[in-house]
Every structure is written in structure tokens, then in C-alpha cells.
Write a structure and sequence with these properties.
Elements: H1 2-63
């Protein structure tokens, strides 16, 4: 009877270990791996975009000085007087 109980305990332990590994540890590992890959891809894309902007700025500077746009006059707000609260009379 003792060996049967021991065998049942071993089978349960192996089953719980299997469940732990394949329903918790493996999905967590895959998720972290995917997040790391996406972060690396995003960083690479940002780095490429930054380098492209740097090249464009250097090309523009080498092409010649840019003429600054003319300063526009600020829009002046009209003084419309004091605010009068409106009440509807019935």
C-alpha cells in the first residue's frame, strides 16, 4: 500500500511540475522574449529615423543658408469693452 501511495505522489508531483513549466514558465519566457525583440526593433527604427534626420539636416546646411521666414506681426485683439452678463426675461 505504501508503494502505491508513493507512486501516486510521484505521478501528482510530475503532473504539477509539467503544468507549472508548460502553463507558466514557458509562456512567461516567450512573452519576455517577444517584448525584448519588439523593444530592440523599436530602438533600431528610432535610431534609423534619427540618422536619416541628421543626414537631411547636413544636406540642407551644405546646400546653402536658409532664409528665415519673415516675422509676422502678432494678431492684435480688439478691445470689445466690458462683458455684460445676459439674463433672459420671461
Amino acid at each position: 500500500m505504501g508503494s502505491l501511495l508513493r507512486l501516486l505522489f510521484c505521478i501528482l508531483a510530475i503532473w504539477f511540475l509539467y503544468k507549472l513549466i508548460f502553463e507558466f514558465i514557458v509562456p512567461v519566457y516567450r512573452g519576455t522574449k517577444q517584448v525584448r525583440r519588439q523593444m530592440r526593433d523599436m530602438q533600431d527604427a528610432m535610431r534609423q529615423q534619427f540618422e536619416q534626420q541628421q543626414r537631411q539636416q547636413q544636406q540642407q546646411q551644405q546646400a546653402g543658408p536658409q532664409v528665415p521666414p519673415q516675422a509676422q506681426e502678432p494678431v492684435r485683439k480688439r478691445d470689445e469693452g466690458d462683458y455684460i452678463d445676459f439674463e433672459e426675461i420671461k
